[in-house]
Amino acid sequence: MDAQTTLIAAFLGILEGLTEFIPVSSTGHLLLAGHFLGFDSAGRTFEVVIQLGAVLALLVVYFGKLWQVFRDAPHDPAARRFILSVLVAFLPAVVIGVLAHDFIKTVLFETPRLIAVMLVLGGVVLLFVDRMAPEPRHPDATQFPIRMSLALGFIQCLAMIPGVSRSGATIVGALMLGASKRAAAEFSFFLSLPTMAGAFAYDIYQNRDVLDAGAVSEIAVGLICAFITAVLVVRWLLDFVSRRGYALFGWWRIIVGSVAFIALSMGL
């Protein structure tokens, strides 16, 4: 792996860490950035696998809370309910992700204009929901009803279209179902753990034959950069959205998507 490729992998890793947990579509950003930088990973595995860095960052930040939940689960119904809630929300992504994997990777990941359009549309939706969401009824992400969690699991699957945003879809769905802004973001954190870990494992398995030493080196650089950046973002995000909401991210999506669409239309 040459110096230029290393720098691009590091840049994309930082971009992944910055965008994974905010509702702007990390995959959309990575695919558009890779397109304009001329970066083409084997089987589009880089863009999926470096998400493991963000998963590890989340585990570090939430280790104490997660450890307590699993420690209390044998004798605490609330802890068991929370674990079940996340697993139920994860199930739709397992089924739909496996069935649609090839279409997602070979068609949707290779359509930059679609990504740009979805960034803009998602930004408009986020601005609307940030202002018009119903009064919160669920202030604690660990106590969402099971039915609500299942609904969020299906809503999360919209993010299989790059540019939609996994966290964005989950947060918008949670807000419309009565979650507070902080609880919506926090539940998207918890749901991302099995979702991204599953995507990582399945993608590695599917592309095991096309990963050479160069691809592994690119992934390692990107993953480390994603981990470091994501730790900082997770620590900052909850306080930010509790005070200021999601409008900033809606405008971010609209600007990035519009600029990308214009650039693509110009043949760049």
UniProtKB/TrEMBL annotation:
<feature type="transmembrane region" description="Helical">
    <location>
        <begin position="217"/>
        <end position="238"/>
    </location>
</feature>
<dbReference type="InterPro" id="IPR003824">
    <property type="entry name" value="UppP"/>
</dbReference>
<protein>
    <recommendedName>
        <fullName>Undecaprenyl-diphosphatase</fullName>
        <ecNumber>3.6.1.27</ecNumber>
    </recommendedName>
</protein>
<dbReference type="GO" id="GO:0071555">
    <property type="term" value="P:cell wall organization"/>
</dbReference>
<keyword id="KW-0573">Peptidoglycan synthesis</keyword>
<keyword id="KW-1003">Cell membrane</keyword>
<keyword id="KW-0812">Transmembrane</keyword>
<keyword id="KW-0378">Hydrolase</keyword>
<feature type="transmembrane region" description="Helical">
    <location>
        <begin position="49"/>
        <end position="70"/>
    </location>
</feature>
<feature type="transmembrane region" description="Helical">
    <location>
        <begin position="112"/>
        <end position="129"/>
    </location>
</feature>
<comment type="similarity">
    <text>Belongs to the UppP family.</text>
</comment>
<comment type="function">
    <text>Catalyzes the dephosphorylation of undecaprenyl diphosphate (UPP). Confers resistance to bacitracin.</text>
</comment>
<dbReference type="GO" id="GO:0008360">
    <property type="term" value="P:regulation of cell shape"/>
</dbReference>
<feature type="transmembrane region" description="Helical">
    <location>
        <begin position="187"/>
        <end position="205"/>
    </location>
</feature>
<keyword id="KW-0133">Cell shape</keyword>
<keyword id="KW-1133">Transmembrane helix</keyword>
<keyword id="KW-0472">Membrane</keyword>
<keyword id="KW-0046">Antibiotic resistance</keyword>
<dbReference type="GO" id="GO:0050380">
    <property type="term" value="F:undecaprenyl-diphosphatase activity"/>
</dbReference>
<feature type="transmembrane region" description="Helical">
    <location>
        <begin position="250"/>
        <end position="267"/>
    </location>
</feature>
<feature type="transmembrane region" description="Helical">
    <location>
        <begin position="82"/>
        <end position="100"/>
    </location>
</feature>
<dbReference type="GO" id="GO:0046677">
    <property type="term" value="P:response to antibiotic"/>
</dbReference>
<dbReference type="GO" id="GO:0005886">
    <property type="term" value="C:plasma membrane"/>
</dbReference>
<dbReference type="Pfam" id="PF02673">
    <property type="entry name" value="BacA"/>
</dbReference>
<keyword id="KW-0961">Cell wall biogenesis/degradation</keyword>
<dbReference type="GO" id="GO:0009252">
    <property type="term" value="P:peptidoglycan biosynthetic process"/>
</dbReference>
